[in-house]
Design a protein that fits this description.
481 residues, mainly beta, elongated, Trefoil (Acidic Fibroblast Growth Factor, subunit A), 5-stranded mixed beta sheet, 2 domains
Length: 481
């Protein structure tokens, strides 16, 4: 069987090199809530009465239902119920800065379920239009250390405030007095990690399309009530805040942070972009990896299609085909040469120089020193007509210039097959981890329901095994070539 070489599909992939993958479907939303999973689907709510639903976390479409209208909701699962909070008015609308924050419960977020029914909304915070706060843009957090439920709210009109709610009823804790925690921001959210409370806040201007200057900043405190300081020690009550994510590329105005912890070392953040220029300048849902650098959260980068060296974090060796090494023409080492002769560049080894020496059937893979040879270069593109996962599509991984695809085997090993067919074992999930490295996982291991990842178990041996965030054997890097 003759190996397939680059055709129209590969050429298209090369033209797409560097493309930043964005959510697909119709992910149009403004002021999205934190993404919540319910019965295998993902939900997020936005300003207005609706929201988005996704069956896989990659393709989003309208369909989520939230009564009450208003603005900038948030959502959280507590026990076996879902608590949704939203601002009824405010934000400088016709009612000025007179607003209220309301909560309501539902047993499910699936509008087609017989259990789908929201409770009557309860007012938990308000502003009279004259005080130095605007009751809008709520964010909620269930403290994992105490089980207490906290609400932040407010806009540029005055302070951001913190109030305590009852996690059983969703009502304001009786006698609770709100605490001022920040200024010069809005759309806040609280998260907790390793003894620190982090206050994420949206800074800049909104609602002006591609001219919006929204960005997300953060401060932290050892106490839930603050003070929240940034990395320079500036308090958020004085306008402080360390940058988490700003505009870039073809998207502008990120705001309304949400955090999703998928498992150890795998976290995602959600937000909206005020304008995605590739989507007609509309406000869209965005999901990105969430990284932690020096104990501070920062937005990671969604994987970009391209041609890469796939490098093991274990030692820095590269994933390669198990093929005979084809030597390049020998060159002089520099001594004993006629220095007056013109210097001629040595051409790189090309696929056409070596492909005739490769077997035509399945070829195993190993890890070795990277020497920028064809058997070490992998082109990675979104697989056509495949589903995805939270924040990304499944990818096909092929030797550059060919259709030879990386695949999982029934023995929980990895090989390359002569041609990509779109089979589940040839589809790969790529997640950026909280330390900036990557996890690579097959969609399916044939004959198994285990969730396994690409692992380096030795200096030359890759395999599939359980992911371990604490081991460099489980981590990979991609270097563009």
């Amino acid at each position: 069987m003759k190996m397939k070489t680059a055709g129209a599909t590969t050429l298209l992939s090369l033209l797409l090199t560097g493309t930043l993958m964005a959510q697909v479907g119709r992910p149009f939303i403004h002021d999205p809530s934190t993404i919540v999973e319910c019965d295998g689907k993902y939900y997020t709510f936005g300003t207005g009465s609706g929201g988005l639903i996704s069956s896989d976390g990659w393709t989003w479409n309208s369909g989520a239902v939230r009564p009450g209208g208003g603005a900038a909701p948030d959502a959280i699962k507590i026990g076996d119920r879902y608590l949704v909070v939203y601002g009824a008015t405010g934000g400088g609308s016709a009612s000025g800065h007179k607003g209220s924050i309301l909560t309501m419960w539902n047993k499910t977020l699936d509008p087609n379920s017989p259990d789908f029914k929201y409770t009557e909304p309860i007012v938990v915070a308000s502003s009279d239009g004259y005080e130095d706060c605007d009751a809008i843009d709520p964010g909620i957090m269930l403290d994992p250390t105490t089980g207490r439920l906290w609400l932040t709210y407010g806009t540029y009109f005055g302070f951001i405030r913190l109030a305590e709610l009852d996690p059983k009823t969703g009502k304001r804790v009786e006698g609770n007095k709100a605490v001022d925690v920040a200024i010069v921001c809005e759309a806040t959210d609280l998260i907790y990690r390793d003894g620190w409370y982090y206050l994420l806040a949206t800074h800049g201007t909104c609602c002006d399309g591609a001219n919006s200057t929204y960005n997300i900043v953060v401060g932290r405190s050892r106490s839930i009530t603050g003070p929240y300081l940034d990395n320079t020690g500036r308090c958020m009550l004085e306008g402080g805040g360390k940058m988490v994510v700003a505009s870039g590329g073809r998207v502008t105005g990120p705001g309304h942070f949400g955090r999703m912890i998928l498992e150890d070392g795998v976290e995602k953040m959600s937000c909206h972009y005020e304008a995605d220029l590739d989507q007609g300048g509309r406000s869209v849902l965005a999901i990105r990896p969430l990284l932690w650098k020096n104990e501070w959260p920062v937005a990671g980068d969604n994987f970009k299609e391209g041609t890469y060296e796939i490098e093991s974090e274990r030692r820095g060796y590269a994933l390669e085909l198990v093929v005979d090494f084809v030597r390049m023409p020998r060159t002089m080492r520099g001594f004993g040469q006629n220095t007056n002769e013109p210097i001629k560049p040595v051409p790189s080894q090309e696929l056409s120089d070596v492909i005739h020496t490769w077997p035509t059937g399945n070829i195993n893979v190993r890890i070795g020193d990277y020497m920028f040879r064809p058997h070490q270069k992998w082109t990675i593109t979104a697989a056509p007509d495949s589903s995805g996962y939270l924040g990304g599509p499944y990818y096909k991984i092929v030797i550059a210039g060919t259709d030879r695809a990386l695949a999982a085997t029934a023995d929980a090993e990895v090989v390359t097959v002569p041609a990509f067919t779109g089979a589940p074992e040839q589809l790969w999930r790529i997640d950026q981890l909280t330390d900036g490295t990557y996890r690579i996982m097959p969609k399916v291991v044939p004959g198994s329901n285990k969730k396994l990842a690409l692992i380096s178990i030795g200096d030359s041996t890759p395999t599939l095994a359980e992911f371990d965030m604490n081991s460099d054997n489980s981590k990979w890097n991609f270097k563009a070539h």
